[in-house]
Design a protein that fits this description.
- 54% of the residues lie in helices and 6% in strands.
- Helix 5 packs antiparallel against helix 6 (175-198).
- It folds into 2 domains: 3-68, no CATH class; 92-252, no CATH class.
- By secondary structure, it is mainly alpha-helical.
- A 3-stranded antiparallel β-sheet has the order 1-2-3, with no helix packed on it.
- It has 9 helices and 3 strands; from the N terminus they run H-E-E-E-H-H-H-H-H-H-H-H.
């Protein structure tokens, strides 16, 4: 960096610390890299202009690396998303929607873990041991209520990477509600799973869910991987067939 540009940067930093920049403040004399017009508050660097009122800066292409390393020393943050829903601040209905989304994400995770991890094929000593501790014991003793729910300590440990994953795929304001929805989905899963094994449902919906899950244990163990619902089994073609359909297929063979 040459001395002239360094002097400009130092001047910008000095005056920015004295005057708080925002989308509505009066422009300071340091206009070498800052500019305000009717479109909003902009930063001008070299031969390209970026409007900080508009979301993201992916359109800069090869110029991005040069632009991103020209700092704006201000407490005013940029806009990430065009939609106000995903940007800063959410109403109570919006938070409720994000929670439901978290529950929905958990339902897919529930199905995926059960199908591809809990039912993984093992042969080695340690593979068999880990599988038995993780899920094999539950299939061998499905009515053992003491080993039905995943231990809370182990759950708390696994929540740490899950929290970081949620932060990675969402914004800082969306992450807590999305994580909360996923955690709520997990609690619903544990409670539902226990009830399906030890409860006596009276209504038709929980009766069907209990039958669907017990089919997985006692009839067709390579299908029916959902717990709280059969939605993903229907999506991915792993929903167990009824006994009558099985008999018809056997007779046709």
């Amino acid at each position: 960096m040459d001395s002239a540009r360094l002097a400009i940067y130092l001047k910008i930093i000095k005056e920015t610390l004295l005057v708080h920049h925002s989308h509505t403040t009066t422009e300071t004399p340091a206009t070498a890299f800052f500019h305000r017009n009717k479109a909003g508050f902009e930063m001008v660097a070299q031969e390209f202009t970026v409007d900080l009122d508009k979301p993201l800066v992916g359109h800069l292409g090869e110029s991005y690396q040069e632009w991103v390393h020209q700092p704006i020393v201000s407490k005013e943050g940029p806009r990430f998303f065009k939609s106000d829903f995903w940007e800063m601040g959410h109403t109570l209905p919006q938070i409720a929607i994000i929670l439901v989304m978290g529950i929905f994400v958990w339902s897919l995770l529930e199905y995926t873990l059960h199908r591809f991890l809990f039912h993984i094929k093992t042969k080695s000593y340690w593979g068999n041991t880990l599988h038995y501790l993780l899920h094999g014991c539950h299939h061998k003793h499905p009515q053992d209520g003491l080993r039905l729910v995943f231990p809370p300590t182990a759950t708390a440990i696994l929540l740490v990477p899950f929290w970081h994953f949620v932060k990675l795929i969402s914004t800082p304001t969306v992450a807590p509600a999305l994580f909360g929805g996923g955690l709520l989905g997990y609690v619903m899963y544990d409670v539902t799973h226990y009830y399906l094994h030890h409860g006596q449902p009276r209504n038709q919906v929980p009766k069907n869910l209990k039958k669907y899950h017990l089919n997985h244990h006692f009839r067709i163990q390579n299908k029916g991987f959902g717990i709280t619902s059969s939605f993903w089994d229907k999506v991915f073609g792993t929903y167990p067939e009824s006994k009558s359909v099985e008999k018809e297929k056997m007779m046709q063979q």
